[in-house]
Specification:
By secondary structure, the chain is of the alpha+beta class. Helix content is about 40%, strand content about 15%. The strands form 10 sheets. Strands 1, 2, 3, 4, 5 and 6 form a 6-stranded antiparallel sheet that branches. Strands 34-35-40-39-38-37 form a 6-stranded antiparallel β-barrel. Strand 12 (about 235-245) and strand 13 (about 250) form a beta hairpin. Helix 28 packs across helix 31 and helix 53 (about 1520-1535) packs parallel to helix 57. The longest helix has about 35 residues, at about 120-150.
């Protein structure tokens, strides 16, 4: 039986548990679990990280821990009762763990990601990779520390250090990971509910300041590590001395650091680091300047001369070697620890050695030089900051390893009590010596000894410096032959204080001989006493000592023999002139740094006052002149002296002693001696014994106070008042000592004295004076010190008494407050100190003091004065209210809150408003101060509101006497709340503070909502208050800090447990308030739609369920008011885009929005329109969500572009939101530019271009466009589009825009720009002819499954591939863009299971384009460069062929049953367009019979042969191999049964009988087979002429096989219609056939002209030429190939590099994913693969010639009738030949026309005249006999061999005849060949020339009659009945306004061009617009004739 657990509530998992039992809960080691029930060794409970999953687990797997239970019962919360630091560590490490894993992923991606963006990613994630490792180390460190804390074996001090270390590490990690700042007190996390908001703010601010702005250290230290001296001339030991030198004052700042080096230049004792390293301590901030240096002196120990021989002298001397200098300032900018190589300089003259460092500093180059080019001193220097104890903690290794301390000369800037130091520094300055009978000067060496009182040498008390231990003596260095040596050597004598008296220093002078044995001969000595007889030490300064001469062997060990002699010339008696006149002298400088000894006689006189009572007066007066450091040395002795004098002679010396006491107290205020205050406090508490002093002190103090008003000079009085705190301390302590000694006698007398003293104080404070009056300043001095007295008074008086003193004293201040008065600020400062004092913390005293404090505070805040101090006071007050409300009685606290609310609430809110609306100051400090004040005031307001109860709110609201006052208050508090929840109000990581703020706000708003309902509804409705309320609520819900979804699970759990989801609470309140509004809701429609929509987008289901129904309410009320809800719809749509682009909303929201509102409107009368609105908004959400998801991706891809296109369409077609439409046009444009889709970018920008006209209408600044006229913007757009068309190699489209722009320039006579435009147009023509263009592949992509975005889901598209992109690469790219997609392995249409699957399926295969501009492609003489554009541009239709067998497959002959399934895809827009892919609009499926298939195969092969033969003839082929292989392939296949198989299949009697309807097709097949044989014969003749010698055998074989083939076909002689000779161009130009009225059709002998019908004039889609091959011998070829060739002819183009087989490379393989690579593109050898059609099924998508072998039969849209002669848009080329893989045909110079038919000669003559130059030329010249022919709907008949009565012709593609326009279409499109959308809104102008009647059509159709028809009935129907999207390349519409037809598309009338253009004001309009007469937009119906343009003249016209 399961029993609820009582005490077993919390545990940690010891081992992982799989949970395989029934109801088992899986556990991982380390999880924490909460236990609910127990049963027989099993627990039931849940893991804290997933509280929703409950289950059972074994008890043995759980380690129980003590826990505290809150809310016991169903919703209980368990908190472990462990150290709060442990709890925080555990939770923090769990949070860090997840983020650390994420950092690992980022780091891995960083290392593995290579490619274009790898560098960017590396820069982005470099820090993340570093952080991964650092965080790992810190986490391990914290775990170790946690283990130490848990073990519990640490001492208290160690535990404190460990916790401090832990919290520092936790804060560091939180900061690095951008987690929240944790408020702490004493290392423990603080519960925000347990402390006041003001306290919380102070804690947060303190932690932030500690983190951001560390206090700059005032003490600095220099670490020096001596490494080595590098020099080439070493060989002697060295001594190196470091010291810090002040270059400004020319004196050393520190003692010396001394290092001994061996002969190799490295330290002698490397194992003793303290002898190599030192710390120069106690440098002040003033010492870190540029003119402070580290000076290094180097001495050598050796011979007198550096070059002397070794055996000359065995005695060694200290001799100068070199000096180095480095500035301290260099270390400030260097790295933390740098190695420096210092240059070493030597003296030019040895006598200058004492000042070599000064010369180096001053750069007196003449006095020093480098000691050697390679001499350098290697040292490590590092500046450290902070006090020495801090350094010991931070650099523990440094101190444990050993480092010597080098002290500063003198005390540091701050003297610490207890510091012991007694160092005497002596500097051997200089000496003056006589020659002593020598011919040369002496080599003088000084030996220094320290001797005690007994004359014994003191051991180890002479030190050259730190680093080396002191010695018994010290030897100076020797200067060679110098009787006036200057040493400037400093030594240190660390003599103990007790040994100072009677000690002296002796200096012995010896001459160092360089001869003989080099002995040192003593010749004199000096000495000096260290302490005088009166106890004073040797005074600091320079002393001139007497040199006493002595014999060389004199015994100086007995000091008594010379101590009686004079030692200094300064203290010689006046009669001793003999000694004074001696020349030999020795100078030293002494400096004492002692905490116990003094050199001041006045100080000694004061301390010994009893010995000399007569000097007391002088001593007291001189005390003020004594240096402060001397006084603090003897502070206790001095104080004892003063109070001793006061006790004995109070009447005589009372005033003077008081003044001395004041002087000493004020001395301790100095920062240098500030640390001695505790010494004085200790003295008062423990050593002070003046029990009677209080009377004298009070008496003198009152005496001073009473004289304040009348005194002229206030300085001394101000000093007295400045010492008030310590005076009162002495008074109170004295009284307590007296009371203790006497049992409390004279109590009343004492109280009376104190009251009288305060009366005097109140009197002087009450005086009103001028601002500059000294009395005012004295008042200010007293107020500054007064709060410090409270604590002392409380030692004797009661709390109420002291509070009374304070209230009366502060109340006595002058009432008139003037802002400029400095006393006001001091008053406030005094109040602040009062509030922070111990006195104010007591509840009784607070009741007394609070009114005074509030009165003064209110006055200052109302006038906005001293706000920093006001904030400080208020913070302290409210902190105390919160702190003591639990201990104090509730009524007292409530009363305090009442007082504060009444006095300050409104003022506080006004202050916050004033501060936040005040412009911020420019200075950083001012900004910080401003922010700090704001934060403090905000914290105060929050603290006050949190303290307010129901009663307080009721009293507050009832206090407003009028509705206006209440209204103003509500508006004010709502505004303040909006300010409080601004993101910038608190720092980013102050989440705790933000949550507390929001909790207070929502609590307050709930109270104020009632007031809003009661006072401002119905008749008293106030829109402004309600609007402010709703606005606040919306902002509140949308705060980032309340979006729990972005929090970690643990943080979210903590927030929900403490505060709940405050968004839902506020949402419910909004809904409730909205429901109360009634008819007033109309006031908020549509204004609140956007804000409420933003609220509903918050991803909180409960909030959405509450808020979405408000939209139904809005629709209902709007319907009642205006009969519709257009406003609601418009506002919803406008706001959705912006909100969703910000990342708000999701798929769940879309579904919820749809379902909730549909359910709500079910019973409404306006249900239909409501459903429509909801559907529109839902569809918009779909697209916006897709767009947002795509934009999140890092790189530009097709998905993002497609999504933008979808959204752009939606805004244009369904919502008609022009501004949003334009915005997305530019977003799409930017995407295309980023992806380098320049052609698509141009088409996209054309959409915006089309919306503009050539007008002067001013346009506002928009996006990146400046304010400009419409004409200027359109001009800019045109130029940009042309530039992008140029970059995308779509030059034909750019030409049309150039023309339009040129017309504009011409109409304005802007010939400069016109010239540039014409040159640009010409350059584009040149690029067409000269530059290579790659033909892209096209791929059909199907997106199936519900996981795709809406704009792709279950749709199929055709995509234009990138350059060089083949199927495999494209498929891989798509799979990369959709990494979760599955590639389908077949090309069949998927079934419904795939459509509805919760997955992504991609079906990809290549398709072949079906070009629209067949006329250009079929025209002879048009260059391939021109044709290549029309093959792959402006493509609407694509096809894909799949071969299959129908019925029984004949194994002997597969051709009998080989059918082709042909799929035709029609797009919604042509490619290229504004996207690389467009959706398939229509899909058609037809089956091609085996016979038709055979016809197409042979037709295509014949065409290929023709082209290769033509290329060979025209010398375009570099070698003959392609022709050889093609001939071989065809002949070989035919011999081996290729054509014979066709004969067996289709020419047998059974087939003809069974298929009587195929009679014509059989005839056509027979005809083609004969034609192929004829072509082969002619090809062999050409081949024989060009074949190289080594291939002759192959040629012979081909000829033999060809005869076999002819025999197999039964051909003895070719029929007449295939015997005609090929046509050759008589003038070498392919255009000659176009220029002559009748094409030259020449027989093999070159003489016979035959008019006949070509087999290629059939209306077949693959017809390119109308010529046939003759069956002549190879000798006939010579007549053809020998024709002259003109270099200027377009015909003579080099073969394209992409020349390939006839096979289609655009169809997909049945197995999509395994298709072979397309590396064979461009290979002429590919034809060998297609020897037989049965091989096709196993070829890849690019190898299998599906479109060539199985070409497209004439579908209904392409089948022509005899009446369709003028239909120039009819496709006549095989679409499969338009891909890059196709052979680009260069048309032959021969014809294959039949001799049988001669009836078309007359029409051919007309055709020849109508043929125009290649695209895009000018319109035809006047007089051109172009016909305007009306189209008929094509007849959907089967393909027939019947030939058209007239051959096709192609007018200029820039004419409207090729536009495919329909007269009754409301949308007239531009030329199909132009490809420019901006030309789409044109009408059709009249055709020039003679109107001809053809067939049964009327002779004149008028200007509205189209000159051409669409390519088929399906195209016609589609383009008539469906309005295409606005960005269609050809079909565009703009219902807003008409746009003119560009001149590039207009057909000028048949008039002569004028000599000059017409004037702009006459022709501007006509040059802009062209509107047909029938256009309803023209009122008069008169056609608007455009200005004619001069046309280029052809060569034949010249």
């Amino acid at each position: 039986m399961w029993i609820p657990t009582e005490h077993e509530k919390y545990g940690v998992v010891l081992a992982s548990f799989r949970g395989t039992v029934q109801h088992g809960l899986p556990l991982e080691i380390g999880d924490t679990v909460q236990l609910l029930e127990k049963c027989e060794g099993w627990y039931r409970g849940f893991v804290h990280k997933n509280p929703n999953a409950k289950g059972i687990f074994p008890c043995t797997y759980i380690h129980l821990k003590n826990a505290h239970i809150k809310n016991k019962g169903q919703f209980e919360t368990v908190i472990p009762t462990e150290d709060s630091v442990i709890t925080e560590m555990t939770s923090t490490l769990r949070d860090w763990g997840a983020m650390w894993k994420w950092l690992y992923v980022v780091k891995t991606v960083q290392h593995t990601h290579v490619g274009m963006h790898a560098g960017i990613r590396t820069d982005m994630h470099k820090n993340d990779g570093d952080l991964f490792h650092r965080l790992w180390h810190v986490m391990n460190e914290i775990l170790d520390l946690r283990r130490q804390v848990l073990v519990g074996h640490l001492t208290n001090d160690r535990m404190k250090d460990v916790k401090q270390h832990i919290t520092a590490r936790l804060d560091w990690g939180n900061e690095q990971l951008s987690l929240d700042l944790v408020p702490r007190r004493e290392f423990s996390m603080v519960d925000p509910d347990e402390i006041s908001v003001t306290e919380l703010f102070k804690l947060m601010e303190h932690r932030h300041r500690k983190k951001e702005t560390p206090v700059p250290a005032s003490t600095h230290h220099l670490f020096v590590h001596m490494k080595s001296l590098m020099s080439s001339n070493l060989g002697e030991e060295l001594e190196v001395f470091f010291h810090i030198y002040d270059g400004r004052e020319n004196r050393p700042l520190s003692e010396r650091f001394f290092v001994r080096l061996n002969k190799n230049g490295v330290p002698k004792s490397p194992e003793k680091t303290e002898r190599q390293c030192t710390l120069f301590v106690d440098l002040g901030s003033s010492d870190l300047r540029k003119d402070v240096y580290i000076v290094v002196h180097i001495m050598r120990i050796g011979r007198m001369g550096a070059g002397e021989k070794k055996n000359l002298c065995s005695i060694q001397y200290r001799r100068p070697f070199g000096c180095a200098v480095v500035s301290i300032a260099d270390l400030l900018t260097a790295d933390s620890k740098d190695d420096h190589l210092l240059k070493v300089y030597a003296c030019t003259t040895e006598s200058e050695w004492y000042q070599i460092h000064e010369n180096i500093i001053r750069k007196v180059n003449s006095r020093y030089n480098l000691s050697g080019s390679n001499t350098g001193l290697a040292v490590s220097l590092q500046l450290l900051h902070g006090d020495i104890e801090q350094l010991r903690r931070e650099y523990m290794v440094l101190f444990t390893r050993g480092v010597s301390i080098t002290k500063k000369l003198g005390f540091s800037d701050i003297i610490m009590p207890g510091e012991m130091r007694n160092d005497l520094y002596m500097t051997l300055e200089k000496g003056e010596f006589e020659k002593g009978g020598k011919s040369v000067a002496r080599n003088v060496e000084i030996t220094v000894y320290v001797l005690d009182i007994e004359g014994q040498v003191m051991k180890s008390y002479v030190a050259a410096g730190s680093g080396e231990p002191g010695g018994d003596e010290y030897h100076s260095f020797v200067l060679y032959h110098n009787n006036s040596p200057r040493w400037a050597e400093q030594i240190k004598l660390p003599i103990p204080v007790d040994m100072f008296r009677g000690s002296h220093v002796r200096f012995e002078f010896r001459h160092c001989s360089t001869k003989d044995k080099g002995e040192k001969k003593l010749f004199g000595y000096s000495f000096v006493h260290l302490m005088q007889e009166d106890g004073r030490t040797l005074p600091d300064g320079t002393h001139e000592l007497i040199i006493h001469k002595c014999e060389e062997n004199a015994n100086l060990q007995d000091s008594s023999c010379y101590l009686k002699l004079p030692f200094s010339k300064a203290n010689l008696p006046g009669n001793n002139q003999a000694v004074k006149g001696t020349k030999e002298c020795f100078w030293i400088t002494s400096f004492l740094c002692s905490t116990k000894l003094t050199q001041n006689g006045d100080m000694l006189d004061l301390l010994k006052w009893r010995a000399h009572p007569e000097r007391i007066n002088d001593s007291l007066l001189k005390l003020k002149e004594i240096d402060g450091s001397e006084i603090v040395k003897f502070l206790q002795d001095t104080l004892d002296t003063l109070f001793g004098i006061l006790d004995e002679s109070s009447q005589r010396y009372g005033l003077k002693v008081f003044d001395c006491l004041v002087h000493i107290i004020n001395l301790l205020q100095d920062s240098k001696f500030h640390h001695f205050k505790p010494v004085m406090d200790t003295y008062i508490e423990s050593h002070f014994a003046g029990a009677l002093s209080y009377r004298d002190l009070i008496k003198v103090l009152k005496w001073y106070v009473d004289r304040i008003v009348d005194a002229e000079h206030q300085d001394h009085i101000q000093q007295v008042l400045n010492a008030t705190e310590y005076i009162f301390k002495y008074i109170i302590q004295s009284r307590r000592l007296f009371a203790l000694a006497t049992g409390g006698q004279s109590e009343e007398e004492f109280r009376c004295c104190v009251h009288e003293l305060f009366m005097s104080i109140r009197f002087f404070l009450s005086q009103e004076n001028k601002i500059t009056s000294p009395v005012t300043q004295t008042q200010a001095v007293f107020l500054r010190t007064f709060p410090a007295v409270y604590g002392e008074l409380l030692k004797i008086f009661t709390v109420r008494e002291v509070a009374g003193f304070v209230r009366e004293t502060l109340g006595s201040l002058p009432a008139t407050a003037r802002a400029e008065c400095p006393l006001e600020a001091v008053k406030l400062h005094c109040i602040a100190k009062t509030v922070e004092s111990q006195l104010y913390t007591n509840t009784e005293s607070r009741c007394i003091l609070l009114p005074v404090v509030l009165h003064l505070l209110q006055a200052h805040m109302q006038e906005q004065r001293d706000l920093v101090m006001c904030a400080r006071i208020l913070t302290s007050m409210l902190s105390l209210v919160r702190k003591y409300d639990s201990t104090a009685t509730e009524p007292v606290v409530s009363e305090e809150v009442d007082l504060i609310v009444d006095s300050l609430l409104v003022v506080l809110m006004r202050t916050i408003l004033e501060i936040t609306n005040r412009p911020q100051a420019a200075g950083t400090n001012m900004r910080l101060q401003f922010q700090d004040i704001t934060g403090e005031f905000v914290a105060c307001l929050l603290a006050l509101l949190r303290q307010m109860s129901d009663k307080h709110y009721q009293q507050l609201l009832q206090a407003f006497t009028s509705k206006d006052d209440l209204r103003d208050f509500l508006l004010q508090i709502f505004t303040v709340f909006r300010i409080l929840i601004r993101p910038e109000m608190f720092l980013k990581d102050w989440t705790v503070m933000r949550l507390v703020t929001n909790n207070v706000i929502i609590t307050t708003v709930l109270y104020l909502s009632d007031a809003l309902r009661k006072n401002f509804l119905n008749d008293k409705f106030d829109y402004k208050v309600w609007d402010s309320y709703f606005y606040l609520s919306v902002i509140f819900i949308n705060q980032p800090c309340l979006q729990l979804e972005s929090f970690s699970p643990s943080k979210k759990k903590r927030v929900l447990e403490k505060y709940g989801d405050m968004r839902v609470m506020m949402g419910c309140e909004i809904f409730s308030m909205w429901q109360n509004l009634g008819e007033h809701k109309l006031n908020f429609i549509p204004a609140m739609i956007g804000p409420f929509l933003e609220v509903t987008l918050v991803p909180q289901p409960d909030l959405r369920n509450v808020m979405i129904p408000i939209f139904h309410d809005m629709m209902d009320w709007e319907q009642r008011r205006s009969g519709n809800f257009k406003q609601v719809e418009a506002k919803l749509i406008d706001k959705l885009d912006g909100l969703m682009s910000e990342g708000k909303g999701d798929e769940t929201y879309r579904e919820l929005f749809n379902s909730i509102l549909l359910k709500k409107i079910e019973r409404e009368t306006w249900r239909e329109s409501g459903v429509s609105l909801i559907a529109t908004v839902t569809r918009l959400m779909e697209r916006l969500l897709d767009y947002r998801d795509c934009v999140k991706l890092g790189e530009v891809d097709g998905k993002k572009i497609g999504c933008t296109v979808s959204l752009l369409n939606f805004y244009k077609t369904e919502l008609n939101k022009e501004e949003m439409y334009i915005r997305y046009i530019h977003k799409l444009y930017e995407l295309h530019l980023k992806a380098q889709n320049y052609t698509e970018a141009s088409y996209t920008l054309l959409l915006y271009d089309e919306l503009l006209e050539w007008s002067e209408r001013p346009l506002r600044e928009f996006l990146n466009y400046p304010m400009q006229s419409e004409w200027q913007r359109k001009e800019y757009l045109h130029l940009t589009i042309v530039q992008n068309f140029d970059r995308g190699k779509c030059w034909e489209n750019g030409i049309i825009l150039c023309r339009e722009l040129a017309d504009q320039y011409e109409s304005y006579y802007d010939y400069r720009n016109l010239s540039k435009m014409r040159m640009m147009e010409a350059s584009l023509y040149e690029k067409i002819m000269d530059q290579q263009r790659l033909e892209p592949e096209f791929f059909r992509v199907g997106f199936y499954g519900k996981k795709f975005p809406f704009f792709l889901r279950n749709k199929e598209f055709v995509c234009r591939g990138h350059d060089y992109e083949r199927l495999e690469a494209f498929q891989q790219r798509m799979l990369n863009e959709f990494p979760h997609a599955i590639a389908m392995q077949h090309v069949n249409q998927p079934d419904q299971t795939i459509y509805q699957a919760e997955a992504q399926y991609l079906q990809i295969y290549a398709v072949s384009p079906i070009p629209e501009s067949q006329d250009v492609l079929q025209r002879d003489g048009v260059a391939d460069n021109i044709k290549s554009f029309y093959k792959v541009n402006h493509i609407w239709r694509f096809r894909y062929d799949r071969p299959f067998h129908k019925g029984t497959k004949d194994k002997e002959n597969e051709f009998k049953s080989l059918w082709v399934e042909r799929t035709s895809l029609t797009l919604v827009q042509s490619l290229p367009g504004i996207s690389r892919w467009f959706e398939v609009e229509k899909r058609e499926l037809v089956e091609v019979s085996p016979l038709e298939n055979a016809i197409e195969v042979i037709e295509n092969k014949n065409l290929q042969l023709r082209m290769l033969i033509a290329q060979c003839q025209s010398r375009q082929m570099q070698n003959i191999n392609p022709l050889t292989m093609c001939l071989n392939g065809v002949i070989d296949a035919a011999v081996n049964g290729g054509l014979a198989r066709y004969q067996e299949a289709f020419f047998v009697k059974d087939y003809i009988v069974n298929h009587p309807e195929d009679g014509e097709k059989i005839g056509r097949l027979r005809e083609l087979m004969f034609e192929q044989a004829h072509i082969l014969e002619y090809g062999l003749a050409v081949h024989e002429k060009f074949v190289p010698q080594d291939m002759r055998p192959l040629h012979k074989k081909l000829v033999d096989q060809f005869h076999v083939m002819k025999s197999s076909l039964g051909i003895q002689e070719f029929p007449a219609y295939v015997r005609a000779s090929p046509v050759h161009f008589t003038n070498g130009s392919p255009r000659s056939s176009c220029r002559n009225s009748v094409p030259n059709i020449i027989s093999p002998d070159g003489a016979r002209v035959v008019a006949r019908r070509s087999p290629l004039t059939y209306p077949a889609v693959n017809r390119y030429s109308s010529s046939s091959l003759s069956s002549q011998a190879s000798n006939e070829v010579s007549n053809i190939t020998g024709q002259s060739e003109s270099s200027d002819e377009v015909f003579n183009m080099q073969p394209s590099p992409s020349t390939s087989s006839l096979s289609s490379n655009h169809s997909a393989s049945p197995n999509v994913t395994s298709s072979a690579p397309s590396s064979t593109r461009g290979s002429p050898q590919l034809q060998d693969k297609h020897k037989h059609s049965r091989e096709n099924s196993c070829l890849s998508s690019r190898e299998r010639p599906v479109s060539a072998i199985y070409p497209n039969p004439l579908d209904p849209a392409q089948r022509a009738t005899p009446h369709q002669i003028g239909d120039t848009t009819l496709p006549r080329s095989d679409p499969n030949l338009s891909a890059p893989d196709k052979v680009r045909p260069t048309f032959s110079s021969w014809s294959l026309d039949s001799v049988k038919e001669v009836n078309n000669t007359q029409f051919s003559d007309t055709v020849g005249k109508l043929l125009c130059p290649p695209v895009p030329p000018r319109p035809p010249y006047p007089g051109s006999s172009a016909k305007t022919i009306r189209s008929q709907s094509p007849v959907p008949t089967s393909r027939s061999p019947q030939k058209s009565s007239l051959p096709p012709f192609t007018p200029s593609p820039t004419e409207c005849q090729s536009a495919g326009l329909v007269s009754n279409s409301p949308v007239l499109s531009g030329s199909y060949s132009s490809g420019i959308s901006s030309m789409s809104r044109c009408s059709v102008s009249e055709a020039s020339g003679t109107e001809a009647t053809t067939g049964d059509h009327p002779a004149h159709q008028g200007p509205t009659m189209p000159n051409s028809v669409s390519s088929g009935s399906d195209e016609l129907i589609r383009r008539e009945n469906k309005t295409p999207p606005p960005y269609s390349v050809y079909e565009r519409t703009n219902p807003r306004r008409p746009v003119p037809l560009p001149h590039s598309l207009s057909i000028p009338p048949s008039v002569d061009p004028p000599a000059l253009p017409p004037k702009p004001h006459q022709q501007r309009t006509s040059s802009m617009k062209l509107v047909p007469a029938s256009d309803p937009r023209r009122a008069d119906g008169v056609p608007h004739v455009p200005r004619p343009r001069p046309l280029p003249r052809k060569v034949s016209q010249l």
